[in-house]
Amino acid sequence: MTQEYTCIETYRPVDGVGAIRLNRPNVLNALSLQTMIELVQAFEAFDADPDVRCIVLHGNERAFAAGADITEMSDATAVTMLQRDQFARWERIRQTKTPVIAAVSGFALGGGCELAMLCDMIVASDTAQFGQPEINIGVMPGAGGTQRLTRAVGKALAMEIVLTGRTIDARRAMEAGLVNRVVPAAVYLEEAFALASEIAGKAPIATRLAKESVLKAFSTTLEGGLEFERKNFYLLFATEDQKEGMDAFVNKRKAEWKGH
Description:
The chain is of the alpha/beta class and 260 residues long. The protein has helices spanning 33-47, 78-84, 87-94, 111-118, 145-153, 155-164, 170-176, 188-200, 204-216, 222-235, 240-250, and strands at residues 8-11, 17-22, 54-58, 63-65, 100-104, 107-109, 121-125, 129-131, 167-169, 181-183.
């Protein structure tokens, strides 16, 4: 049964790829509570679908997402924010096992920048602008901006972005290690879908465990990460795809992945 959404749209642009489009263009795709609820539903549905092996999240050419919906927070208290526990939804998105690509054009600010960083890779158009302007309204990033941005671009640049509220363009973001590539706005979605299709064409269990292992590097020591990587490597030898992949290599043919 097809899920009906009001703030987002989902579709399948190519085989193996699920796409989620933020669809609140009148407010530059501001991330309302309802938007986050729908995003969780969409990510979890795609993650549970064996035919979806990579996910692309995008907005439109003008904005990926210009931030949180401030109208929902302006009158909040510390207690109501705590009770709302809105960041629990971000954690559920973070737990997506399928590789996720953010295709970013235009504004990716505040929560929009944090949402892009929650993804595994970022393909940016040459019009993309990244920033954490929360300091300009008397608060600070709360959905991972101080943590993921620092890990991506380093302390000095992260401090400048967070403490001044200034943005950086796509080229600077790529130079700093925040995005994978920068392409013309006219083809940014096409480029993201091409990358997603390439990933979707690999052995699905291997890509999930490889993603898991890369992310582990940010939450453990080198020794702990190497142990985690090694166990995932050994685990893949219990899959049919490992046998298929190595047999295909030895016999110089194309592997046919089953996801088993």
